[in-house]
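Module 6 notes. Inverse folding takes a fixed backbone as the condition and produces residue identities as the prediction. Think of it as a translation problem where the source language is geometry and the target language is the twenty amino acids. Below is one complete input and output pair. Work through it position by position during the lab.
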């Protein structure tokens, strides 16, 4: 099949940029941060923190993704997630936020938003060490001055432990 030719010059027309550039593989590892609604320190409350923490590793919520590490701070959470082959990051985070909101509101007899609508994510490059990222995640309570030893903070986990 001949290439299209410009009527003005008789030269082949330049190729148009691809409208749908290739996406990176879905099974990458992402460091995700989600804040509570209006940055309220909701997770100072034991009931809310304990309930939200349980939902972060629920396989029904994660689908084909793996939660590698997480920490729940008073007004935000950090998740280190390795995606599976089928579920995009936005869907995975939406499920985590939705499930934890539903569980927190039910268990603590409250109503209203738990999480802010957006989240921040960073895709780890091939040369970034996943275990270093996990140490960063679980080290947040130390850096925030909430505890002197990470073992004293109850709301975190990592697959390497």
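Target side of the pair, the amino acids:
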């Amino acid at each position: 099949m001949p290439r299209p030719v410009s009527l003005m010059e008789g030269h082949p027309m330049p190729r148009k940029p691809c409208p749908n550039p290739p996406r990176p593989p879905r099974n990458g590892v992402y460091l995700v941060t989600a804040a509570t609604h209006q940055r309220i320190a909701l997770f100072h409350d034991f009931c809310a923190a304990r309930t939200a923490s349980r939902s972060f590793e629920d396989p029904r919520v994660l689908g084909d993704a793996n939660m590698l590490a997480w920490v729940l701070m008073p007004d935000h959470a950090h998740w280190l997630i390795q995606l599976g082959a089928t579920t995009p990051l936005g869907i995975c985070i939406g499920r985590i936020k939705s499930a934890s909101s539903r569980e927190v509101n039910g268990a603590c007899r409250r109503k209203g938003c738990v999480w802010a609508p957006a989240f921040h994510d960073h895709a780890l490059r091939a040369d970034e060490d996943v275990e270093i990222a996990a140490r960063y995640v679980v080290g947040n309570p130390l850096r925030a001055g909430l505890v002197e030893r990470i073992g004293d903070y109850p709301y975190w986990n990592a697959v390497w432990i």
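Reference fact for the lab report: Residues 89-107 form the longest helix (19 residues).
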